[in-house]
Amino acid sequence: MMKRTLVIGGGFMGMAIAQVLAQGHQEVFIYEMNEALRSSRAKEYPDFRFIRHLNECKDIDVIIEAIPEKLELKQELFQKLEREFPQAILCTNTSSFLISHVGAKMHSMEKLIGTHFFSPANISPLVEIIPTAETDPAVVEAIFYMLEGCGKRPVRLNFELPGFIGNRLQSALAREAMSLVEKGIATAEDIDFIAKWALGIRLAITGPLEQRDINGLDTHLSITEHLYQDLENSREPLAILQKKVQENKLGMKTKAGFYNWQSKNTDELLVKKDRALQKIIEVAKALEEE
């Protein structure tokens, strides 16, 4: 039974994952290189064991990486983890890289697997489990049941592909939404309003393929025959996105993006959104059980 886990990275995602593991009665260690952040987190989360060096913890069963999304950093880390923790299952929380690319410098990827948590990881139930072609099936099963034991809703992918499933669906929707803003069809606020009050509410209880069955596949085919040719299909980031990044309009963190965040208390807003998300999850689970 897996009971000792190590989280690499004490940032927002790493700490959220650590909370999930603790809910599953795991003994959690957290490795964070930044001394100031490590000290701050240790005061904020006194129940976790924060370490300065990897050799401070032994007999680790599972390691979950949650460091910045830089491929070379991840590759070097997993090369080191394979050497120092040969008995451990090694998980990467990458949201964009192929798992096999993350493990490219490893001797063997039998114990390597992707565990893609969705933010906020301590609230959102879903975790995508992505094996490489070399991943031992027993590792897939072990991680699936560990995550279930932590209260998560894991989903296994049959094989890896860029963006996995969730981010591919999300990226397609975001690309179309940005394209509509770019073309002046509607404001960002109105497009988000439609996404939340038409699509979002329904998606909480009915997935896109289930909804197509409800509507009728013949009806959907008729729609797609003339609609698909007009949908955004750019293979490059849209100009509107590139321009905002060039202008340092990066979103909430710079107080400007598709929205103006200058007058908003963003910390308070995020707390409210997390509470609302928890309520939606509770309702969706209750409906599933009926």
Features:
Rossmann fold, 290 residues, N-(1-d-carboxylethyl)-l-norvaline Dehydrogenase, domain 2, eight-stranded mixed beta sheet, alpha/beta, 8 strands, single chain, 11 helices
Strand content: 5-15%
Low-confidence stretches: none
Rg estimate, integer Å: 21 Å
Number of contiguous helices: 11
Number of domains: 2
The separation of the N and C termini measures: 33 Å
Q: Write the CATH fold name of the largest domain.
A: Rossmann fold
Q: Provide the CATH superfamily of the largest domain.
A: NAD(P)-binding Rossmann-like Domain
Shape: globular
CATH architecture of the largest domain: 3-Layer(aba) Sandwich
Percent of residues in helices comes to 40-55%
SS class: alpha/beta
Oligomer: single chain
- Name the helix and strand elements from N-terminus to C-terminus, one letter apiece: EHEHEEHEHEEHEHHHHHH
Q: Provide mean pLDDT, rounded.
A: 95
Could you give a short account of the major beta sheet?
8 strands, mixed
Order of adjacent strands in the largest pleated sheet: 3-2-1-4-5-6-7-8
